[in-house]
Amino acid sequence: MLSQRLEEPKVICVTGGKGGTGKTLVAINLATMFKNAGYRVLLIDGDVENPNTYLLLGAELNEKKAVPFFKPDIVQEKCTKCGLCSENCATHALLQIKDSYPIPILTVCSGCKLCYKICPENAILANFKTIGWTYRSKAHGIDLLIGELKPSEARSAAVVEDLLHQLQEDFQDKKYDIIVLDTAPGAHCDVELLIDKADFVIPVTEPTKFGELDLKKIIELIDLLEKRYKVIINRSSLL
Predict the structure, then answer these.
(1) CA separation, residue 26 to residues 108, 180, 203 (Å)
(2) Nearest-5° angle of CA 44, CA 190, CA 193?
(3) Would strands 178-182 and 142-149 be described as parallel, antiparallel, or unpaired?
(4) pTM, whole model, 2 decimals?
């Protein structure tokens, strides 16, 4: 066991451009290795569309918390149909026909709240919907923080942002020595959010043509974020 703790937690991000390469198993094995060495370990499952670290570790999901997401509610009694909100919505999430009230299209709303902030009549209320959940758990001496996107929702990055907000609270409490981040496959925005928080990145791939192509994509993202990394080539029996 360690005689002293780390002064600052170290963050390791396990990622990969392709699914099915064993990324999550690598993340769990890393967390287990550090736990066995005497470190206090937090494993964060940021693959919010398919979280399964808790399943592989045989853990129960506890401390369920909803992840809220802004949605605009139009107060027709106050709305003057000026069109300012729809004209300035970058994602075109407010449909407005001339001389009619704006209609929110929630599936494309980014949650930026610009419409709510600029409405001159205060005719837009800030309401919220649940787009996912986070959970806390513990298994084999490893603490788990898990994100889950609600089925039919598409804003996975918002759930990851909520996980990172909770991570920041853990940083302040200095509860952990090692934090292992498990990302979704791919090189999209929620993966970028997790890689950006890491001190070191481990992309996991397989020795196939698709594995090689997707590895190049994720390395481009890692280089863009100026992170140190080492690649694990899993399933070497395919060579």
Answers:
(1) 35, 10, 10
(2) 75
(3) unpaired
(4) 0.87
- Only one residue has tokens 């005689």, namely 3
Query: Which amino acid, one-letter code, is at 212?
Result: E
At 11, give phi and psi (nearest 5°). Answer: -110, 120
- What is each CA distance from 225 to 9, 62, 94, 144, in whole angstroms? 20, 33, 34, 26
CA-to-CA dists, residue 201 to 11, 193, 231, angstroms: 9, 13, 8
Per-residue pLDDT of 151-161, as tens digits, reads 988 889 999 99
Which stretches within 42-155 are classed as H helix?
A: 53-57, 84-87, 114-118
Compute the distance between CA of residue 234 and CA of residue 206 in angstroms, rounded to an integer. 5
Radius of gyration over every alpha carbon of the chain, rounded to an integer in angstroms: 21
Closest CA relative to residue 181, chosen from 39, 66, 69, 28: 28
What tens digit of pLDDT does each residue of 47-83 get? 999 999 999 999 999 999 999 999 999 999 999 999 9
Phi and psi, residue 212, nearest 5°: -65, -45
